[in-house]
Amino acid sequence: MFSKILIANRGEIALRVIRACKELGIKTVAVYSEADRDSLHVRFADEAVCIGPAASSNSYLNIPAIISAAEITDVEAIHPGYGFLSENTHFAEVCESCQITFIGASSESMKLLPDKMTARETMRKAGLNVVSGSNNLVKGKDEAVKIARRIKYPVMIKASLGGGGRGMRIAHNDVRLISSFMTAQAEAEAAFGSPDIYIEKYITKAHHIEFQLLGDNYGHIIHLGERDCSIQRRHQKLLEETPSPALDGRLRKKIGEAAVRGAKAVNYRGAGTMEFLLDEDGTFYFMELNKRIQVEHPVTEIVYGIDLIKWQIKIAAGEKLNIGQDDVVANGASIECRINAEDPDNNFMPNPGKIETLNLPAGPGIRVDTHIYQGYTVSPYYDSMLAKIIARGCDRDEAIKVMKRALDELIIEPIKTTISLQRNILENRLFLDGEVFTNFLDNIYKIKADLEE
């Protein structure tokens, strides 16, 4: 087992990794930007190193600075968390060349899935369904129109690299496709350094289902059930739950087996997530393989009783999985609500500022993952997520009731947050009935679909 690990991230995920390391008896090193000097991950790590100014490009994405911090503190491994460098093949290779273990997918696995377009083709060869679309990267507007007419509108334009809703647009006709194509290219270039675009059929009423995977270095891969992530804004998840109300036992088994088969096709190692779209007919399509821990991993941990961060670390240290697929048994239901510093009544305008009053929910069935505290100043430089509220119940109905109680107890003032939005979702009849699709939020909250040009 490692004796010291550097966490190349910030916020709640950095704290989450520090806690897992403490329980494993591992020393931790935090890295931080100048803007994060007063953050809790800096306070609770055993050591901390400033790696640059506020801008992510000069700090949390600064590979030389992070490697230097790792070398001067003499760590054996680096945990990248999620976002930032967590799926960066070059970073994983640099770690390996410096004889520092990268706690995540191997660089070889990453090379097999360098982008979403390649991943589609790899999984298709492994026998997984993929949504109809372009077979290669789309070179220009004329080719885009030809493809869209062939697969029929509406279509989704997607950046081949990255995620988080960037470089994605929906088009319903030729005119919109052309303008959206250029916009998506520019956004992809700015966000990910690559304008590469592909096109696929847009499934209007789809459930977003993802399966949690764990794989060791010895070819043993299992899944830990599914999460339903259909409630999204601009393709960024807001609420996740397990089990999904859209799956029965037969379909759950079928998709889970497909997820494991796809992971084995690339010799996957560590924690990862296979994401699918499920249409109204019960047909499921591979979407992507996230090669990192997910923001929403706590709902799986609570229901299955397995610490995913600890297992990431153990696997990277060379331990074998001692869990078989038959050992994976769900116990109850769980829901996670992401609380963001955004104003849902003002087009989700970011709302940074100082938190003067804070009350976090507690009691049976509640877990809160957060990095905020009373007096903490929410920075304008990074993601707006403040906290993840996770509720568990013996079934979905009880989990919803527990979550509603938790949101009633949650106070974050005076900044604007998405607490009220989450309450609205939990009281919506379609949500209560499990009739939730990826366009749910646009429909029930009357939000303009920014991606729909």
Question: What does it look like?
Answer:
Mean pLDDT is 93; it is low at 447-453. The radius of gyration is 21 Å and the shape is globular. An 8-stranded antiparallel beta sheet has the order 13-12-9-10-11-14-21-19, sandwiched between helices. Strands 3-2-1-4-5 form a 5-stranded parallel beta sheet. Helices cover 33% and strands 26% of the residues. The termini are far apart. With 453 residues, it is of the alpha+beta class. α7 (141-151) packs across α8 and α12 (396-409) packs antiparallel against α13. The protein is built from 15 helices and 22 strands.
Sheet having the most strands: 8 strands, antiparallel
Enumerate how many helices there are, as a single number. Answer: 15
Helix content: 25-40%
Total number of strands: 22
Distance between the termini: 51 Å
Radius of gyration: 21 Å
Mean pLDDT: 93
Assembly context of the chains: single chain
Global structural class: alpha+beta
General shape: globular
Note the beta-strand portion: 25-35%
With strands numbered from the N-terminus, the spatial order across the biggest sheet is 13-12-9-10-11-14-21-19
Detail the poorly predicted runs: 447-453
